[in-house]
């Protein structure tokens, strides 16, 4: 089998099964694991998969920059944001992570709601600027332009001084074994701090993130309380997440 044919086969298995196990594939093709691992390295370098121990997973498409993500799964993000907004109760202190779904959540908070929103996302803060009942606490730091959020030591220090009711977290990948992941090491650290600062965490994930993985692990999926998805999220991909202890909540899609 030619290299090109092997790589196409690997990608076909990945689409079919949602993962590739190097040992199983080497036995199937009667090739050495070294050959398969080399193919996986090259495919990963092309951005076509995410290598993990023992094989590979689908790469998180959500690693596009903020402007690019505005065009990705737009209807799903509106539905998830609307559903997330309904979870906020009067008087609560909530942490809202950055990202395009978080902006939709801020946009859909009820007009009469009185609560406190703490965020390291200028985009979320601007969205709430005209909401008279929301006290907005904007965390500062170094602006990470890819996601339009504050990161770094100043942001970490500010987050460590908060006790919030709920953290609404954005990720680029949700996988039962690979965990909650994102594409930047500093952003992963900030997301861990946000989770630690809240009594519970609701992960906001459009369907392209389910079963996918990025390079940097935030936490195991079991560290979150709830995964909020749209009706389009495939049941088969959600089953292992539920088995791993993550409660699944679907938005109404309307």
Query: How many β-strands, per DSSP?
Result: 15
The overall pLDDT, averaged over residues, is 90
N-to-C order of helices and strands: HEHHEEHHEHEHEEEHEEEHEEEHE
Query: Briefly, what CATH class of the largest domain?
Result: Alpha Beta
Strand order of the largest sheet: 6-5-4-9-12-14-15
CATH fold-type name of the largest domain? Rossmann fold
Helical amount = 25-40%
Report the uncertain regions.
none
Q: Count of helices?
A: 10
CATH architecture annotation of the largest domain:
3-Layer(aba) Sandwich
The main β sheet shows up as: 7 strands, parallel
Tally of domains: 2
Gyration radius, in Å = 19 Å
Distance between the termini: 49 Å
- Would you identify the CATH H-level superfamily of the largest domain? Translation initiation factor eif-2b, domain 2
Proportion of β residues? 15-25%
Write down the overall geometry.
elongated
Domain HTH deoR-type: 3-58
Keywords: DNA-binding, Repressor, Transcription, Transcription regulation
GO molecular function: DNA binding; DNA-binding transcription factor activity
Protein name: DeoR/GlpR transcriptional regulator
Can you tell me about this structure?
The chain has a 7-stranded parallel β-sheet, with helices on both faces. The N and C termini lie far apart (49 Å). α1 crosses α3 and α5 crosses α6. The model has no long low-confidence stretch (mean pLDDT 90). It has 10 helices and 15 strands. Helices cover 37% and strands 24% of the residues. The chain folds into 2 domains: 56 residues, Arc Repressor Mutant, subunit A (Orthogonal Bundle), CATH 1.10.10; 185 residues, 3-Layer(aba) Sandwich (Rossmann fold). Keywords: DNA-binding, Repressor, Transcription, Transcription regulation. Pfam families: DeoRC, HTH_DeoR.
């Amino acid at each position: 089998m030619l290299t090109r044919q092997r790589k196409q086969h690997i990608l076909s298995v990945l689409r079919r099964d949602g993962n590739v196990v190097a040992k199983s594939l080497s036995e199937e093709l009667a090739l050495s694991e070294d050959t398969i691992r080399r193919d996986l390295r090259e495919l990963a370098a092309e951005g076509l998969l995410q290598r993990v121990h023992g094989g590979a997973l689908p790469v998180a498409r959500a690693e596009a920059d903020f402007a690019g993500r505005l065009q990705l799964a737009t209807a799903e993000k509106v539905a998830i944001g609307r559903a997330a907004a309904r979870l906020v109760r009067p008087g609560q202190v909530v942490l809202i992570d950055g990202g395009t779904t978080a902006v939709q959540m801020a946009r859909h908070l009820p007009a009469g709601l009185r609560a406190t929103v703490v965020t390291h996302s200028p985009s979320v803060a601007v969205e709430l600027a005209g909401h008279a009942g929301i006290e907005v606490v904007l965390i500062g730091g170094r602006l990470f332009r890819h996601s339009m959020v504050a990161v770094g030591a100043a942001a970490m220090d500010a987050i460590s001084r908060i006790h919030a009711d709920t953290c609404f977290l954005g990720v680029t990948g949700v996988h039962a074994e690979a965990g909650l992941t994102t594409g930047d090491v500093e952003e992963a650290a900030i997301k861990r701090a946000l989770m630690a600062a809240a009594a519970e965490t609701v992960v906001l994930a459009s369907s392209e993130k389910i079963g996918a993985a990025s390079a940097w692990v935030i936490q195991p999926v079991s560290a979150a309380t709830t995964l909020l998805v749209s009706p389009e999220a495939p049941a088969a991909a959600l089953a292992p997440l539920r088995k791993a202890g993550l409660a699944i909540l679907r938005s109404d899609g309307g």
